[in-house]
Design brief:
This protein has 269 residues and is of the alpha/beta class. It is built from 10 helices and 10 strands. 41% of the residues lie in helices and 22% in strands. Residues 16, 21, 39, 41-47 line the site of adenosine-5'-diphosphate (ADP).
């Protein structure tokens, strides 16, 4: 396999209307590596991911995925990239009117010429990988939050992608179920040498899954990369904005908890 980066972002600038959200972001993801994009809420992590997927047009800089310039490529070239990458959306985003099996087989039915029988075998294999054998005929509303996420992973890897993108894969799951998703990410990465770009704000996940970490932090004029390196380097980094994130993360849950305590104390609803 080639050693060329699977993702290469240079000097990326993104604006929503008047607001610059990302200001000069560089990011390189090597084949077979798990890169975590971390940072507080609103630091531009999802925005960066949207640029990698070619969903959002930057105002400056370049984005290459599997060697293809996602900003200037033809729709056809972008479509080709889509067949070689997978995406796990934040809420799972399964089609509610389709069974588990239909959800997982969708990319194969739409983008391959495989026989129904072969697709069936592929779907069973992917469901086995996410430990959901036997769930083929279930509807999404008959699944737990963790199971929905697992099906979303099975669908995202249906076409054996070279790179898998995930936005907050364990958000909203209870911590034990979230750890299961971390294990799944690690296992898929090891078993298939699949590169992954995982957006997360949970340091426990980062510790388990990340080969490399890139941290974004909002600043006047747009978010920048404030750290790039290994987990050990992150722990040793003395940059105040990094230290604050690392020592206080996960930022969301404790705040939600604190709010709940306050609510009970004050007696509001
Ligand atoms: N569609 C949009 N239009 C305008 N502003 C947006 C839009 N999406 C996100 N933003 C703003 O851009 C910033 C980064 O958002 P986002 O990429 O979602 O951050 P994160 O994923 O790190 O929480 C935030 O200030 C957010 O309010
Ligand atoms: Mg986000």
């Amino acid at each position: 396999m080639s050693k060329a980066p699977v993702v290469e972002v240079k000097d990326l600038v993104v604006r929503y209307d008047e607001q610059v959200v990302l200001n000069g972001i560089d990011l390189t993801v090597k084949p077979g590596e798990v890169t975590c994009i971390i940072g507080g809420s609103g630091s531009g992590k999802s925005t960066l991911l949207k640029c990698l997927l070619g969903i959002l047009q930057p105002v400056g800089g370049s984005v290459k995925v599997l060697g293809v310039d996602m900003v200037n490529a033809s729709p056809r070239a972008v479509e080709k990239v889509y067949r070689r990458i997978g995406m796990v959306y934040q809420a799972g985003a399964l089609f509610g009117s389709m069974t588990v099996e239909e959800n997982v087989s969708l990319p194969l039915r739409e983008h391959s010429d495989l026989d129904a029988q072969i697709i069936d075998i592929a779907v069973r294999m992917k469901l086995g990988l996410v430990r959901l054998s036997g769930f083929e005929k279930r509807m999404p509303n008959q699944l737990s939050g963790g199971q929905v996420k697992r099906v979303a992973f099975a669908r995202a890897i249906a076409m054996d992608p070279q790179v898998l993108f995930c936005d907050e894969p364990s958000a909203g799951l209870d911590p034990r179920i979230g750890r299961g998703i971390d294990d799944l990410i690690r296992n898929l990465n090891r078993a298939f040498n699949m590169a992954m770009v995982v957006v997360t704000h949970e340091m426990e996940s980062v510790k388990i899954i990340a080969d490399r970490i890139v941290m974004l932090a909002p600043m006047a004029g747009g978010a920048r990369v404030v750290f790039s390196g290994s987990y050990d380097e992150l722990m040793a980094c003395e940059e105040p904005v990094v230290r604050e994130f690392v020592t206080r993360a996960p930022l969301h849950e404790p705040r939600a908890e604190a709010k709940e305590v306050l609510r009970q104390l004050v007696g509001e609803d």
